[in-house]
Amino acid sequence: MSAGTSMMARRSVSALAMAAMLSLSVWFMAEGAAQQASKLRSPEFQVDPAWPIVPNNWVLGEVTSIAVDSHDRIWVLHRPRSIPADKRARPRPPCSNSMPRASC
Q1: Domain extent at residue 66
Q2: In which band, very low, low, confident or very high, does the pLDDT at 104 lie, cut at 50, 70 and 90?
Q3: In total, how many domains does the chain have?
């Protein structure tokens, strides 16, 4: 074997070894990502049909936001003008926090 042929053979073997290592590392990374993704789960929520309990027979309009503060009070912001005319007798104040928290 000549020196040139020997050098080409080494380069070919080196290129094949690099390609094999690259393929294996990509495969291992993909396996790890797949296992990690299977462990992640999004939270599951259930609707409480009894919530909200609106006190004083108040009526809610279109609710624009709901928030829970650091004391576990639920704040509801709604649009009283969106209540139909036949139900406007007892509108709830636009922003209030008297909603009891649903049991979790």
Answers
A1: 55-99
A2: very low
A3: 2
